[in-house]
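Re: [help] complex structure
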Amino acid sequence: MWKYTKKLQYPVNIKKRDPKLAGYIVTQYGGPAGELAAAWQYLDQRYHMPDDRGKALLTDIGTEELAHVEIISAMIYQLTEGLTPEELKAAGLGGNYAQFGNDLFPSDCFGNPFNMAYIKVAGDYIADIESNMGAEQRARATYEHLMDLTNDPDVLAPLAFLREREIVHYQRFKELRNYYLEQKEKAGK
Amino acid sequence: MNSYNEIGYQDRQNLTAMKNTTSGVNNNNFNKCNYVQQVTPNDLYGAYAGFIRGNMFPDLYNQYKISRPFEVEPMNEQAQLLTYVDAYAFGAHDINLYLDTHPNDRAMIELYNQYRLEYKNALDQYEKQFGPITVDSDAILTSPWAWNNSPWPWENQ
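Output below.
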């Protein structure tokens, strides 16, 4: 089960509203390389990992990704907090306002709703873990693109934190993949 | 401030003098084919230094666009105490992931347990002063129901 801790993994305190940027960052909420997709991909795959090592790593990284969903949500919330419909419209978020008011909605930057088909499961633990390595690399690249689109230190700081987490997760998945390949080789499979 | 000394927090002092200066700089190890991580507890950043980087491991540290990590600058005592909770929780968590793939690394298991205790200590102090952020905290023995109280994590401080 999961237990809530009433804090973010990394603090978000954005002073300047920037609805346009919120409209880009939303892809890390509900887009193809987003945190929601990553969390569900790992938490879904863990049931058929071949041993405890894989079950532990997928559970722990999947859980951390849920905390990243919350960081991204906090960023979107603060970047758009208190803005008028006119201001949202001027930033290209008039459609969001029409459908969702000021609520958050997981989509990519083009407004396509989050799609569970983003998650990769193949019934093959090597294929699954390699898709996770890919997911971490794609998320890292997306964070770099988002960092290219802003110079606000209040936004860059959590983006840099999240990008760095992708690097560490990538290394852990790579270690797990390599370990399983070695085990397979030893077993002559 | 006193409360930080009480929890033995030294990481701010360690910030500029990182334990491992040669491997602490920007590097591309994570993208090396079959890079194998071999670390001892002394190789790691301190909890705060790792927390602001999002990475406890200097040999995996790679930054983009920014030239140095952002300091977390708490606006008040509550936010500052929370930063210690954050830092220790982060240190323990990043070592947890490392141990998932290095389950026989005894020295790192000890370091995990050090951070786990520092986290519990910092959490306990925070909750005593500012109310519960975990629903099973002793600080929840209050009326009215203290779990409802602000700040909520996503609110600008």
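Chain B has one domain: 2-148.
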